[in-house]
Amino acid sequence: MLVLIKRSARAFTVGEIGTDEISGLHWDNVSGGVNQRQGGFSLYGYIDYARAAELVDCSGMHGGCGRVAKIMVPASLNRDEPYREGYLELLDRVGYKRIGHYRYPEQKPCTKRILGVLKEHGPQTRKEIRDMLRQEKYPSVQIARALNRMEKDGRILYKQGSSKMPGQIIALNTY
Q1: What total number of domains does the chain contain?
Q2: Helix axes 126-135, 110-121, angle to 10 degrees
Q3: Tens digit of pLDDT for each residue in 75-98?
Q4: 132 with 85, same domain?
Q5: pTM (predicted TM-score)
Q6: What is the b/e burial string over 154-171, where b = at least 16 CB atoms within 10 angstroms of the residue's CB?
Q7: Torsion sign (Cα): 34, 40, 41, 47
């Protein structure tokens, strides 16, 4: 099944891709690449970097981290056939769409969950923390804000790596 993708909400270039090529589906309001913020949450996922360069004009200037690129799967472009069926399949895979930055009733606050991950596993890269929490349905923007807040108030330390990069090592501050 096929869907139409873009790099971000403001991008003009649209590409067609099979749903089986998209991984890491999640709801987010921050695009890949230049991290453009948008008003509401949209469906995002990851595709092979070479495919992104071919389909949606991914420049590679913003990392190409892990050889994947973050792409948007806009509902507005996938309403009609032949793309509707593929979009509905992706919706089944990703699940519930958040209305805002609220957590599910059974979820711990994001900051407490990050502390738990660091206590349980020791120092982790920013990407490892983000991937763990995304699997638990925390939005990317919430994870980033929690990490920044926790660093400012001294609960965690950025030990190694460039600021805000996926390979940056984050550890508990043991004071």
Answers
A1: 2
A2: 120
A3: 999 999 999 999 999 998 987 665
A4: no
A5: 0.59
A6: ebbeeeeeeeeebebebe
A7: negative
